[in-house]
């Protein structure tokens, strides 16, 4: 067992997290499995189980449109209910935004409508700064 912040992760969960934290791009479950075969992972289900727990702890986010996972890049926002990502469709760069005005507004909208939002992911697709400058 390895302690991360206040969360206690199993060895397997920690290994999955380590791979995601090292990776610059988001990874799918099968890419993770390939990375972790030597560490005793044999089936995608083991990966999914670890990912579920990591998502629960707010350590990992899922990008539905890419069907891939990414380690949370913000130390202080373990419990954020709303995450926003900028995804470059050209180079694949994914950047996590936190404490956005969007999140504040969405939260307020939900509150006004007496809706208890538990989780939301906003995925913005477009071009990053670098790709916008160097056109093909
Ligand atoms: Zn995050
Ligand atoms: Zn780009």
Blueprint (SSEs and pairs):
Blueprint (H helix, E strand, L loop, with lengths): L1 E3 L2 E3 L1 H12 L6 H8 L7 H13 L3 E4 L4 E4 L10 E7 L5 E4 L3 H12 L7 E7 L2 H5 L3
Parallel strand pairs: 5-7
Antiparallel strand pairs: 1-2, 3-4, 5-6
Describe the structure.
The radius of gyration is 16 Å and the shape is flat. Strand 1 and strand 2 form a beta hairpin. It has 5 helices and 7 strands, in the order E-E-H-H-H-E-E-E-E-H-E-H. The longest helix is centred in the middle third of the chain and has 13 residues. 37% of the residues lie in helices and 24% in strands. Helix 1 crosses helix 3. The protein is an alpha+beta fold and 136 residues long. The strands form 3 sheets. The chain has a 3-stranded mixed sheet with strand order 6-5-7, with no helix packed on it. It has a two-stranded antiparallel sheet with strand order 1-2. It binds zinc ion (2 copies). One zinc ion binds next to loops.
């Amino acid at each position: 067992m390895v302690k991360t912040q206040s969360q206690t992760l199993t060895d397997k969960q920690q290994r999955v997290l380590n791979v995601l934290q090292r990776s610059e791009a988001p990874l799918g479950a099968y890419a993770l499995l390939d990375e972790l075969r030597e560490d005793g992972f044999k089936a995608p289900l083991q990966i999914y189980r670890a990912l579920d727990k990591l998502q629960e702890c707010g350590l990992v986010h899922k990008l539905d449109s890419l069907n891939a996972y990414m380690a949370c890049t913000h130390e202080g926002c373990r419990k954020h209910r709303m995450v926003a990502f900028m995804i470059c469709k050209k180079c694949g760069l994914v950047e996590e935004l936190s404490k956005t005005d969007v999140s504040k507004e969405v939260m307020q909208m939900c509150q006004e409508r007496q809706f208890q939002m538990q989780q939301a992911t906003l995925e913005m697709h477009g071009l990053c700064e670098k790709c916008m400058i160097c056109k093909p």
